[in-house]
Amino acid sequence: TCLPGGLVLAGCCDGVGTKVEVAKAAGDFAFLGQDLVAMNVNDLVTCGARPLFFLDYIACGKLDRAVLTPIVKSIAAACAESGCALLGGETAEMPGTYGPEGLDLAGFAVGLAEEGKILDGSAVQKGDAVVGVPSSGVHSNGFSLVRRALLSPGSSLSLHDRPPLLGGQTLGDCLLTPTKLYVSLALKALSGNVVHAMAHITGGGLFDNIVRVIPKGFSLSLKYDAWPRPAIFSLLAERDVEEDEMRSVFNLGIGFVFLLAQKNLPDFLALLEKEGEKGYVIGEVTA
Predict the structure, then answer these.
(1) 74-99: pLDDT as tens digits
(2) Residue 124 domain-assigned?
């Protein structure tokens, strides 16, 4: 939607999927709100929009303050960190549609961009570098596969277990690590006017999320050994999730991606480091 002054409204809607089921099983709802905000604002910022406000929709079978209070607090904190207002939302108690412990979350984010500075991928060129920024873990996609591989009936693992691969962390704490918020970093990166495109790595994995922000006729060459993977993905591989399936479902340790000309790499990687993030050159755009 175009506004006076060359400004454009952008919006998006997303949820946290079946990560809710892991939170319910663990009895830990402290960071689901951040997951919900991140899934929206991280998508929104990829076109160059600055988030303005956020709305939430929470559906449940029975209102439970012990569940809903930490979720809403986390939503508010994540909105503040992302520089957007939490305008409100809707909490729907729906017995008969949901069981007593039933819960689902959805969010809606609206942002503002300058029409002439929208990132639509048209500036991407053959040879552009693909720079990835680490994720905090699984984030909020692929949890149906996670639950099937690690927590299905008869599994030898529980959320309270501390698998050696996780270095002393419980499986529950690892899986419920909140989705990182990339808005501040992305807006800072855009200020240098060298970024050609950005991608938030969600369902579909790295290739599918990046290739859709580049022009038709181009493809990608990705180096999947160019960054350290979080241990949770090693655990999933140990539980017979094939590499090809993991690449098509998970972020594998890269949560957000920037595309830019190779000549601008040194300064850009220095900018990321100044902002406290490590950038990995994980591939390039090919013809």
Answers:
(1) 999 999 999 999 999 999 999 999 99
(2) no
| Both tokens assigned to 172 | 């529950």
Choose one of 53, 83, 117: the last residue of a domain: 117
Query: Is the model's pLDDT at 179 over the cut of 70?
Result: yes
Q: How many Å apart are CA 252 and CA 181, to the nearest integer? A: 17
| pLDDT at residue number 5 | 82
* Strand 129-134, strand 280-286: pairing: antiparallel
Whether 138 is in a domain gets the answer yes
Q: Report d(CA 131, CA 197) in Å as an integer.
A: 11
- How many domains are contained in the chain? 2
What would the pLDDT profile of 204-219 be if each residue is shown by its tens digit?
999 999 999 999 999 9
- The Cα 31–Cα 266 span in angstroms is 35
Residue 146 lies in a domain: yes
Domain assignment of residue 227, given as a range: 129-286
